[in-house]
Design brief:
This protein is mainly β and 152 residues long. The chain contains 1 helix and 5 strands; from the N terminus they run H-E-E-E-E-E.
Length: 152
Amino acid sequence: MMRHFYAGGLAALALVSPAAAQSAKPLNDSITVDKRHYTLFNPTPRRYMRPMVPDRPGITESPYSVDAGHFQYETDALRLLTRREGPTHGHDWYANHFLAKIGLTDRTDFQVALDMYTYSHNFDDSQVGQDPFDQNQLHRGVGDVTLRLKHT
């Protein structure tokens, strides 16, 4: 019985997937105007813009782009992450991890991401009392610069 259920589900998915993938309009675009002719130097008018969808730098990524000719800046002003994995634990402080995006076309944007400052302190409790005592690891500094082109 379940075998037929799964086979039917796979068949339905195979039929629906190509039609959904060919949709030319992003799902968050409620405007019915053809915006393909707008570019970086011919920006999309405000009345035709899609709702803003943030990517939240380093946390999530959305399948949406910024409207042509518009700029979006996202940042994590200050974030603390703590972790514990067996005998090791640590704290990571992030300051101003940002993502800047500019819309090149209706469905393409250029993005620059930078981790401005990272402070990572790791502790290994399994090495307490050992010689040489190397319990702490400290890493800090500017992170990576990421350049990317996103087409939806």
